[in-house]
Amino acid sequence: MSERLDIDVLTIFPEVVRAPLSESILGRASDEGTVGIRIHDLRDWTTDKYRKVDDEPYGGGPGMVMKPDPFFAAVRDLRKEKTSVVLMTPQGRQFDQKMAREFSVSSKHLIILCGHYEGIDHRVVQGLVDQEVSIGDYVLTNGALAAAVFIDSIVRLIPGVLGDERSPIEESFSIEDGILEAPCYTRPADFEGMKVPEVLLSGHHEKIKEWKRKIAAERTLENRPDLML
C-alpha cells in the first residue's frame, strides 16, 4: 500500500468541499485510509467575537479582502514536517493532469487555502504559500469549489484508489502524448439505429487498440487542437 496522503482544507464554506469529497471514489478512499481529508472552518482561528475573516482593502477598491492572521494561525497549527501549502487562486499556475500526477506522487501532507471575496491579503502568499494553483482561466464564487476539483484529480491517481490500475492510464490527458481518450460504448450494440463500431465487437485486441488511437487523435484535433501542437 502506498504512503497515506493527508489533506487539510481551510475555507469559510466547509460543506462546499465536504459534500463532493464524501461520495463515491473519494469517500471510499477516505474510509479505507488511503487518504485523510479534514475540512476546517477558517473562522475557528479568529480571535474576535464576530469571527471576522475579512476587512476593507488598503488603497480602496470594491469588496473585502481576507485577513492574514486566521490563515497564519491555522497553518501554524496544522503544519507537519512534510507539509506543502497550496493556495487556490485564478492567479496561480494552470492545473493540468501532469501537475495532478506530480502532487499525487510527491505529496505527503497538503494544506489547501481557499479564498473568497476580492482575494487574500498578499502576505499570506509571501509568508505561507508554496504553490499557487488555478484550475482554469475563469473566476469562481470561492476557492472551496476549486479545492474539491483539485483534490479529486490528485486522489484518484493514488495507486489502488480506482481499483483498476489501467483506469488513470487510459483516460484523457494521460494516454499517448496527453491527447483525449477514444469514445466508449456498452450494450445495446444497436441503439435507435446508432451502432457500436464493428471493430469493438471483433475481439481483435490489436485492431481495437489501433482504432482507439486513431479516433482519439481525430477527436483531439476536432475538440482540442492545442493538444496536438
Topology record:
Blueprint: E1 5-11, H1 14-21, H2 24-32, E2 35-41, E3 54-55, E4 65-66, H3 68-78, E5 83-94, H4 97-106, E6 109-114, H5 122-127, E7 131-134, H6 143-155, E8 190-191, E9 194-195, H7 198-201, H8 205-223
Parallel strand pairs: 1-2, 1-6, 5-6, 5-7
Antiparallel strand pairs: 3-4, 8-9
Helix pairs in contact: 1-6, 4-6
Order of helices and strands: EHHEEEHEHEHEHEEHH
Q: The CATH topology of the largest domain, please?
A: Alpha/beta knot
User: Architecture of the largest domain, CATH level 2?
Assistant: 3-Layer(aba) Sandwich
The profile of the biggest β sheet is:
5 strands, parallel
Name the helicity range: 25-40%
- What is the assigned CATH homologous superfamily of the largest domain? SPOUT methyltransferase, trefoil knot domain
Which range does the strand content fall in? Answer: 15-25%
Query: Which shape, going by the Cα principal axes?
Result: elongated
Strand order of the largest sheet: 2-1-6-5-7
Number of domains: 2
Number of strands: 9
Q: Mean pLDDT, rounded to whole units?
A: 91
CATH class of the largest domain: Alpha Beta
Q: What's the N-to-C terminus distance? A: 38 Å
Category by helix and strand content: alpha/beta
General description of the model:
The protein has 229 residues and is of the alpha/beta class. The chain folds into two domains: 5-155, Alpha/beta knot (3-Layer(aba) Sandwich), CATH 3.40.1280; 170-229, Trp Operon Repressor, Chain A (Orthogonal Bundle). Helix content is 35%, strand content 19%. It contains eight helices and nine strands. The chain has a five-stranded parallel sheet, sandwiched between helices. The chain has a two-stranded antiparallel sheet with strand order 3-4. It has a two-stranded antiparallel sheet with strand order 8-9. Strand 5 (83-94), helix 4 (97-106) and strand 6 (109-114) form a beta-alpha-beta unit. Helix 1 packs parallel to helix 6 and helix 4 (97-106) crosses helix 6 (143-155). The longest helix is centred in the C-terminal third of the chain and has 19 residues, at 205-223. The radius of gyration is 21 Å and the shape is elongated. The two termini are 38 Å apart.
